Backbone:
C-alpha cells in the first residue's frame, strides 16, 4: 500500500503542488490528470525517490519509503516521459539491463509488448511508438510491486494500448500498484483519479 | 554486487557499440604526444628528459575527452533515471561508471604509454616507474573525472566547465606521477612518489563515488 501525506513538490525552483495526499491500495491504480505543467511528472519522480519532497511523507506499507532510496528503488518500475532507449543497441540489448536486474529473460519483456519480431533490430530503426513499447516492456521484466508510468500510451497504436492494458491488469491481479500520469484514457479498470491543478 | 556488474556490463556494451569514441581518446593521446618531438626537436637527451611529463599530460587530456558523454548521454535520454532506480546506491552507480571509464579509457592509455615512451626515448630504466605510476594514476583520473562529470551534469556549458574543474584536481596526480618516472630516470628510487600516488588513490577510492553519487542525485 502506498500512502502519500501532505507532499509538496518543486520543479525548476517553482512550487507546483502542495498538501497533496492519497492512498493506493494493493492491486489499485491511480491516474494523475490535469493540464500541462501542474506537476504530474514531478509527482511521479517524487514517488520514485528521484526528487526529494519539499514537504510531507511518502509511506510504503506504513513506513517512510524515502529514507532508504536503494531499497525503495527495488520496489519501483519507472517509465518516464523519455524512452531511455539507446539507438545503437538492438531492442533485445536495450532490455538486457532491466532483464538482468529483474532476473527475467529478455524475451518475456519483448513478448509482452509484441516486439519479439524486432528483437535484433537496432533501436534507431524503430518508430516512436515501437520505442515507447520497448520502454514499457521494461515493466514486464521488473518484479517491483509499484509501477510509475508517465504518459504510457503516448504514440501507441490501439493494439499496443491493449497489450499495455493486459500487462497492467496482470500486475494488479498479483497485488501490484500502478500510478500513471496521462492525458489520454488508459485501459485501467476501476482506477482512481487524482486531478492536479 | 550483481547490480554493480549489470551497470558495468551495460557501460562496456555501449562503449563497444560506440567504439569510435573509445578509439578517439586513444588516438588523441598518441597524437598529442607525437606533437612534442615536432615542436621541441628530436634530440634524444631533451626528449628523454621531458618524456614522463609529456606522457602524463597527454594521458590527463585524453582521459578528459570521454567525460562529457559519461553521464551526459544518459541524462538526456532518461537512462540515468533507470540507473539511479536499479537498486544500487547512487555512489554505486558512479563507481560502476568510473570503473567502466577506466577499463575503456584508462587501461588502453596505460598500454599505449609503452610504445609512446619508447618513441619519446624515455630511458629504459624509467619505464617500469612510469607504468607503475600510471596504474594508480589512470584510476585516479577516472575517479576524479567521474566526480567532475557528475557535478557539471545538467549545467549549461558543462563541457567547458568540466576541464576547469577536473584539471586542477588532477595536479597532485600529475606531479607525483611524472616525478616517479623522472626519479627513476635519474637513478633515484621512485618509491616515495608511487606511495604518495597510492595514498591519493586510497583517499579517492571511497570519496569520489560518494561525491559523484550525491551530485547525480542533485542533477535533476
Residues:
Amino acid at each position: 500500500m502506498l500512502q502519500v501525506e501532505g507532499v509538496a513538490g518543486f520543479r525548476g525552483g517553482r512550487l507546483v503542488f502542495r498538501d497533496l495526499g492519497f492512498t493506493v491500495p494493493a492491486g489499485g491504480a491511480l491516474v494523475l490528470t490535469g493540464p500541462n505543467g501542474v506537476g504530474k511528472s514531478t509527482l511521479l519522480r517524487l514517488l520514485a525517490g528521484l526528487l526529494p519532497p519539499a514537504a510531507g511523507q511518502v509511506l510504503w506499507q506504513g513506513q517512510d519509503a524515502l529514507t532508504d532510496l536503494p531499497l525503495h528503488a527495488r520496489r519501483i518500475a519507472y517509465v518516464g516521459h523519455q524512452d531511455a532507449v539507446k539507438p545503437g543497441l538492438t531492442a533485445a540489448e536495450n532490455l538486457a539491463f532491466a532483464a538482468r536486474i529483474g532476473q527475467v529473460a529478455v524475451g518475456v519483456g519483448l513478448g509482452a509488448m509484441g516486439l519479439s519480431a524486432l528483437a535484433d533490430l537496432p533501436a534507431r530503426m524503430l518508430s516512436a511508438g515501437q520505442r515507447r513499447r520497448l520502454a514499457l516492456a521494461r515493466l514486464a521484466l521488473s518484479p517491483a510491486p509499484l509501477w510509475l508510468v508517465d504518459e504510457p500510451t503516448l504514440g501507441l497504436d490501439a493494439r499496443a494500448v491493449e497489450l499495455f492494458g493486459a500487462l497492467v491488469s496482470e500486475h494488479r491481479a498479483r497485488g501490484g500498484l500502478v500510478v500513471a500520469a496521462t492525458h489520454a484514457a488508459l485501459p485501467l479498470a476501476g482506477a482512481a483519479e487524482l486531478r492536479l491543478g | 554486487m550483481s547490480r554493480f556488474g549489470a551497470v558495468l556490463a551495460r557501460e562496456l556494451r555501449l562503449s563497444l557499440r560506440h567504439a569510435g569514441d573509445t578509439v578517439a581518446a586513444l588516438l588523441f593521446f598518441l597524437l598529442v604526444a607525437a606533437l612534442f618531438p615536432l615542436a621541441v626537436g628530436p634530440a634524444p637527451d631533451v626528449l628523454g628528459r621531458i618524456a614522463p611529463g609529456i606522457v602524463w599530460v597527454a594521458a590527463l587530456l585524453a582521459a578528459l575527452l570521454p567525460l562529457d558523454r559519461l553521464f551526459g548521454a544518459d541524462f538526456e535520454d532518461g537512462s540515468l533515471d533507470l540507473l539511479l532506480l536499479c537498486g544500487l546506491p547512487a555512489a554505486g552507480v558512479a563507481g560502476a561508471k568510473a570503473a567502466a571509464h577506466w577499463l575503456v579509457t584508462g587501461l588502453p592509455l596505460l598500454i599505449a604509454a609503452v610504445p609512446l615512451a619508447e618513441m619519446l626515448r624515455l630511458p629504459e630504466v624509467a619505464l617500469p616507474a612510469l607504468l607503475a605510476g600510471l596504474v594508480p594514476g589512470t584510476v585516479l583520473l577516472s575517479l576524479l573525472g567521474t566526480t567532475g562529470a557528475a557535478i557539471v551534469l545538467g549545467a549549461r556549458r558543462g563541457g567547458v566547465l568540466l576541464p576547469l574543474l577536473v584539471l586542477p584536481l588532477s595536479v597532485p596526480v600529475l606531479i607525483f606521477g611524472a616525478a616517479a618516472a623522472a626519479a627513476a630516470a635519474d637513478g633515484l628510487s621512485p618509491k616515495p612518489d608511487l606511495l604518495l600516488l597510492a595514498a591519493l588513490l586510497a583517499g579517492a577510492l571511497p570519496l569520489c563515488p560518494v561525491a559523484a553519487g550525491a551530485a547525480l542525485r542533485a542533477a535533476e
